Amino acid sequence: MSTAELDLRFDETMVRRGAKAVNWRGAVEIAGELLVGARCVRPGYIRKLIDVIDKFGPYIVIAPGLALVHAQPSSDSLQRGLVAVTFPDGVNFGHAHNDPVGLVVAISTMNASQHLDVVAGIANGLDGDDTLVSKAVRASSDAELVELIQTHLPDLNFT
């Protein structure tokens, strides 16, 4: 697969700082709405994101304070993209060790291979680095948040 096939759309319009949600569903909906607004997915993808967590539990909370929200590519997937939402007050996802979540990252991809590569790229970028969430929550601008995520996830190609 060429690197162009792994490009992810991600820019200042795809972040939201200082969000508030009363529960994980609200947090996922906020991230999903950003993906819809960026024309990465159709609205039905938000339901799929929630269904995955309902079915499999909070496994998407992959590190302390960080949720990687994703669903398998489907007819609701329009283009590859990543969004990030910070929750300074934290949101409980029901994870025994990694709650509360201060940073929700949601992705959309076009096929299973891309999906696995993007998830792996995010996991590799976070390996051994526990500063991303605290820095993200303290980001003072959308541009700072975008730069921070791009720097912490060097295995991904952002456009």
Radius of gyration: 14 Å
Number of helical segments with 4 or more residues = 5
CATH class identity: Alpha Beta
CATH topology annotation: Mannitol-specific EII, Chain A
Overall spatial form: globular
Characterize the main sheet.
5 strands, mixed
β-strand number: 7
InterPro entries: Ascorbate-PTS_EIIA_comp, PTrfase/Anion_transptr, PTS_EIIA_type-2_dom
Pfam families: PTS_EIIA_2
Subcellular location: Cytoplasm
Organism: Gulosibacter chungangensis
Chain-wise SSE layout:
Layout: E1 7-8, E2 15-16, H1 24-37, H2 44-56, E3 61-63, E4 66-69, E5 81-91, E6 101-108, H3 112-126, H4 132-138, H5 142-152, E7 157-158
Parallel strand pairs: 1-7, 2-5, 4-6
Antiparallel strand pairs: 3-4, 5-6
Mind explaining what this structure looks like?
The protein has about 160 residues and is α/β, with parallel strands linked by helices. The protein has a single domain (about 15-150), classed as Mannitol-specific EII, Chain A (3-Layer(aba) Sandwich), CATH 3.40.930.10. About 40% of the residues lie in helices and about 20% in strands. The protein is built from 5 helices and 7 strands; from the N terminus they run E-E-H-H-E-E-E-E-H-H-H-E. The chain has helices spanning about 25-35, 45-55, 110-125, 130-140, 140-150, and strands spanning about 5-10, 15, 60-65, 65-70, 80-90, 100-110, 155-159. A 5-stranded mixed sheet has the order 2-5-6-4-3, with helices on both faces. Strands 1-7 form a two-stranded parallel sheet. Helix 1 runs antiparallel to helix 2. The protein is globular and about 35 Å long. The model has no long low-confidence stretch (mean pLDDT about 95). It holds the Pfam family PTS_EIIA_2. GO terms for molecular function: kinase activity. It comes from Gulosibacter chungangensis. This is Ascorbate-specific PTS system EIIA component. It is found in: Cytoplasm.
